[in-house]
Specification:
three-stranded antiparallel sheet; globular
């Protein structure tokens, strides 16, 4: 499991880094719009996928897309 600790963040860590709400990140994970791994009840967010999602949000003209 140490592999996941190097390549993934908890939802709470991802929320702090990205500015997104933790519930929003969980919804993205459930809807397969953000890559991650579910271990038991806990989601881990793929760091590279989160960076990619944030980059797309910053380049989007739709203002609903992105952190608040």
């Amino acid at each position: 499991n140490s592999f996941f600790l190097k390549t993934h963040l908890t939802v709470q860590e991802a929320a702090e880094v990205s500015g997104y709400n933790a519930q929003y990140l969980r919804r993205l994970l459930r809807d397969c719009k953000l890559e991650g791994v579910k271990i038991g009840q806990m989601w881990l967010v793929d760091k590279a996928a989160l960076d990619s999602y944030i980059e797309k949000a910053q380049n989007s003209t739709d203002q609903r897309f992105g952190s608040k």
